[in-house]
What does this fold into?
Amino acid sequence: TRFLSERYKGNVMSNPQNPEWLDSTNREGESFDLPSVVPLDFDSLVNAAKAKAGLDDFGEDYWQAPLKMLCDDLNSVAELTLFGRLMARNDLLIWLNQRLEITELTKRHPEILQQAIVAPMFIVGLPRSGTSILFEVLAQDPDVGVPKMWESMLPTPPPETATYSTDKRIEHAHQLFTQWNRAVPEFATVHEMAGDIPAECGLIMAGSFISDHIASLHMSDNYGAWHAQADLTPAYQWHKIMLQVLQWKNPRKRWLLKAPAHQSKLDTLLKIYPDARIIQTHRDPIQCMGSATNLMACLYKMRTNKPFNAAAFDEFLVGEATAQRLELVIDQVASGVVPKQSLCDSRYCDLMDQPIDCVEHIYQYFDMPLTEATKQRILDYLAAKPKGKFGAHNYQSDATERHYFDRYQKHYQVPSEV
It folds into this structure.
């Protein structure tokens, strides 16, 4: 097992602090028999989901093994607080109900599974490499359909065009996701959360129980290690079913999707979406590692008082492993595993300096029209969202592992920021 050296402790925001209400709640919970009060065992969760939905068919059973492994972690190594257990149980019940309801829906309406997902566009790259801001920028194209947080978590009944912007689930999801900011206020400076903003694919895949979104929320060492090596084909198949459900009564001209984790699974992604258009973002990996460490520390702080274990995320927090992830794509393109015409490279510095030129490059690469109206929408969006709108995201980075990235930075001409 590879552990972060002492110097990386400086990357973590000075131990994100819980607000007093959360600390008080969790202290009171220490006197409870938490596994009994908030059970996180497999049978309890499955039975509760069945009772709520009035259904018992979860579809294919590939999800059971990872959920059981996750439950074992949550009851042992994760060391969840009272509030952490409540958050975890709520999440797991939502995703189990998702499976039950989508399985029932597609049995009653098999035509949903015949919906075509044509040339979806995926944004991939290291965490904190500009994937989120590029996602938001490209979403300004009115021809683009992005999955929103609310519909990705609560997809049934399928969203409808007439009520898409007024659906009651928007407020429900908004309360759940902004709860993260209320639990750890520093999180708001790292990543925006709301019910109606674009969702990452990890959330869409959560109902498969094979998802980096799940791994990122808890110190689930065994689940995380398993997920890093797992065959993600079932997760991508579930991802496609989710998109089919979401577009059934609210058609999208063209899907725009995003998840950093796709970067190491492009071969599997292309197996499910052979006509996918992939945009790979590039930024100084040293800078990405420092920022990503903060993000993980904030996520964990919501659910546990256990010290942050950065080793569980060494794929993008440690130089050698990060370099291997980045070089994998170089080799896959060179060998043809990832067709060159399917992948467009986009540098973070170009997006920051010349956003319209950056977007024009992407559209030209995939031979797509970019209207003047869309360009103006992008400029207006950026003007309304200046950097630091939600507070300064302060973190430190260390360049002592720069040598691992020589090949990557030369190949893509990525400038050093540190």
